[in-house]
Design brief:
Blueprint lengths: L1 H12 L3 H13 L1 H24 L1 H6 L4 H22 L15 H10 L1 H12 L8 H32 L4 H27 L4
Helix pairs in contact: 1-8, 2-3, 2-5, 2-8, 2-9, 3-6, 3-7, 3-8, 5-9
C-alpha cells in the first residue's frame, strides 16, 4: 500500500496538463474560479478511473487511432485554455467570470487527457496489495488516490493563487500568465514528441 501511495505521489507531481492548468487558472483568475476548475478536474479524474477499472478505456485504446485523437483533442483544448490564461488581466474583477474556466472546463480536460488514462491504468493494473479481494483493493486505491490527488492539486492551486495575490503590476502579471500558458503548451509539445519522436 505504501508503494502504491508513493507511486501516486510521483505520478501526480510530474507536471502535466492538469496540475499546470490548475496553477495557471489560480494565477490568472483567482481562488474561486480555481477551486471550481479543480472540482471539475476531480470529477473528470474519477470518471477516467471508472473507465479504466471497468475496462472501457482498454477497449477504446485498442483502436490504433484513439490515442492520437485524444492527444489532438487535448492539444486543442489546452491551447484554448492557454489563450484564456495568457490574455487574462492582472485583476480578477476585470475578468468576465463567464469566460473564466470552471467545472466543465476541468471535467472535459480530464476526459480527453491521455496522461489521466495512463496514470490510472498504471495505478489500477499494478501495485497489487490485496490480491485476494479485487473490490477491497480497488476501493482502497480510489481512497488513497483521491486523498493524495486533492492535496497535490490544491498545492498547485495555492501556488497559482499566491502569484495572483501578490498584487503584481499589469505587466508582471501578464508575463506570469503568458509563462503559465507557455508551460501548458510545452507539455503538449513534449507529449507529441514522446508519441511520435521515438518511432523507428
Amino acid at each position: 500500500m505504501l508503494t502504491f501511495a508513493t507511486a501516486v505521489i510521483l505520478l501526480l507531481l510530474t507536471p502535466g496538463p492538469g496540475v499546470l492548468s490548475t496553477a495557471g487558472v489560480g494565477s490568472a483568475f483567482g481562488p474561486w474560479r480555481g477551486i471550481l476548475y479543480v472540482a471539475g478536474l476531480f470529477l473528470g479524474t474519477n470518471a477516467v478511473a471508472i473507465a479504466v477499472i471497468s475496462g472501457l478505456s482498454a477497449t477504446l485504446f485498442a483502436l490504433p487511432f484513439m490515442r492520437v485523437v485524444l492527444m489532438t483533442a487535448t492539444a486543442g483544448y489546452l491551447g484554448y485554455l492557454a489563450v484564456r490564461i495568457a490574455l487574462a488581466g492582472s485583476k480578477i474583477n476585470f475578468i468576465n467570470a463567464k469566460k473564466s474556466p470552471g467545472i466543465i472546463d476541468g471535467f472535459m480536460l480530464q476526459l480527453i487527457n491521455p496522461k489521466a488514462y495512463a496514470v490510472n491504468t498504471t495505478l489500477f493494473s499494478g501495485f497489487a496489495f490485496r490480491p485476494d479481494s479485487f473490490l477491497l483493493e480497488t476501493t482502497l486505491k480510489l481512497i488513497i488516490l483521491n486523498c493524495l490527488w486533492i492535496f497535490i492539486h490544491l498545492l498547485w492551486l495555492y501556488f497559482g493563487m499566491r502569484l495572483h495575490s501578490l498584487n503584481l503590476s499589469n505587466r508582471t502579471q501578464r508575463v506570469v500568465n503568458i509563462s503559465m500558458a507557455g508551460c501548458l503548451m510545452g507539455v503538449v509539445v513534449l507529449s507529441f514528441y514522446s508519441m511520435f519522436g521515438y518511432s523507428d
